[in-house]
Amino acid sequence: MGYFARGFTRQHIVAIAVGVLVAGAPLIAFNFWLSGVIDRQGREEADVSARHAIALAERRTGEVIRTLDTLSAAGVVDCGSAALEAMQRATFDAVPIKEIAILDAGGRILCSPQQRGTAIERDVVRRILATEAIEGAPGYMLDMVHLPGGKPMVRFRRPAGSSPNAIAALVPAGMFLPHVAVHAFEQELRDELNGGLESGREADGLYAAVETRGHLILAEFGKRPAGQAARDGYTAEHRSPKYGFQVLIAVPNRLISAGGAEVRWLGLFTAGVALALLGVFATLIARRDPHNPVLEIQRALAAGEFVPYYQPIVDITTGQLRGAEVLVRWKKPDGTVVLPAAFIPLAESSGLIRAMTLDLMRRVSDEAGKAIGERPALKIAFNFASKLASDETVVKDVYGVFAKSPIKMTQVVLEITERDPIESFAATRQIIAALQSLGIRIAIDDVGTGHSGLSYMLKLGVDIIKIDKMFIDAIGTDRNSTTIIETLVDLAHNMRMDVVAEGVESFEQVMHLREIGVRSAQGYVFAPPLPGRAFLKLVDAMDGLGEQPVPAPIEAAA
Ligand SMILES: Nc1nc2c(ncn2[C@@H]2O[C@H](COP(=O)(O)O[C@H]3[C@@H](O)[C@H](n4cnc5c(=O)[nH]c(N)nc54)O[C@@H]3COP(=O)(O)O)[C@@H](O)[C@H]2O)c(=O)[nH]1
């Protein structure tokens, strides 16, 4: 109890209630929807059954009328042996007819192939309950007949030729409403109906009837619902356009819903399992390790915690600002600033580097776009992971950023490092060409540190080479490094490429680089990577300076 009291706060209870609601609402909605579908289906089935029953009653009536018409036309008007034989054959051929008889003008049976004995004897045991003319069949009368101990019968009768006699056919009432007429019902309904029809017992709330327009009931089972019972169910009614018969099938709602019980349970079970799986999935997502570094980067990216720092690039022959290299920093909400070495490798391996690079470009455009755009001589360089340089869709994205930016394409430099191997030389070459066609320039970064070989990298058709700090550090101490730098500078000049020296930390290095013909350099001797505001101040301050000697170092801001 103590644990419960301590462990569950109001928020927990609200969260659980919300969870139950969120999980339960779709189930309730689904159940609601399913009930609607089942009810609609049940009603449609009742309608279909009623239409079947009407079709059947029409077919049977038509068959009886055709048979009697044929006999009458063939001269079957009395009790001669030929007439009796024809009546016997017709009884055998017409499925619904159980007996054909010749009646006298008073309606008494004169003879029938199925009946032996005198007419008087037969009339004593046969009772006429009701009589009505048949709509759509001129000259025909319909009698409801009761046989002793037998099932209810329907008798069709017409004049026998021009004689005063009549010819009549006896049809069991059940022929107008057999169980096949309701075959479309769900199993439960079928059982009810069949049970009702075959056993004679009252179907539980289910009612079906075929009646004439004058409400003479030809066949029925069940108890006709009235009042509330009628309101608590659905009644399908269909009328025969030929003979005016009407079929009524009344199904209580209880049976309609019962018909779909299996479907409902199956549906609810499936929906429940799907929701449970969703729940498990959602829990797993919620429980994902909050310290997963890739998720952390993803979150920080969405929160805008990756910001650009700008390291100035200086013309060491004039002292003018030539532009800047953008270096990303992770500014955490607690104020700590994380250097790229701690997250760039993971951003690259997880694929987040693309979003990060494009985000950085947009931020630079927002923050320094105006200042840079107003000074066309300034260039802005971005580190461009070699993975990105082999993805052709990136060209469109980079274009999308700078097409809307005050920074012109011709001011943009993308630095591809020599340190990482190139995944596909052909694709990279193509993408570089596409970027260059926009006016963007491409630099090889960290030259001298990779395994690809400079000549291989140069085949990519780049515009700038950036000499790595490693060689700059060795100026004045290692002759080989100095020779390598001189060779690189010569090579670059011969190939009409620009050279930028990186990681320049001393005035001696600046002097040496200037002597061997290097014009652009970046390094702590001028400035560390600066946050946006400091960089913009520097851009402003450098405006007034004409051709000046190399500027004095600026204090690192981060
Ligand atoms: N794909 C991307 N990679 C990026 C991005 N931003 C940075 N990086 C990569 O991280 C590497 C390390 O960057 P950083 O820690 O910012 O270091 C740079 C400078 O701060 C540092 N530097 C510059 N001048 C000096 C100096 O005089 N002395 C000294 N000790 N260090 C100096 O060097 C790094 C310059 O990097 P680069 O020119 O790119 O080689 C960095 O190397 C990038 O690969 C990014 O947005 N995307």
UniProtKB/TrEMBL annotation:
Single GO cellular component term: plasma membrane
Record field: transmembrane: 12-34, 265-286
The entry's keywords: c-di-GMP, Cell membrane, Hydrolase, Membrane, Transmembrane, Transmembrane helix
InterPro entries: CSS-motif_dom, Cyclic-di-GMP_PDE-like, EAL_dom, EAL_sf
CDD domains for the chain: EAL
PANTHER family, alphabetized: CYCLIC DI-GMP PHOSPHODIESTERASE PDED-RELATED (PTHR33121:SF79), CYCLIC DI-GMP PHOSPHODIESTERASE PDEF (PTHR33121)
Name of the protein: cyclic-guanylate-specific phosphodiesterase
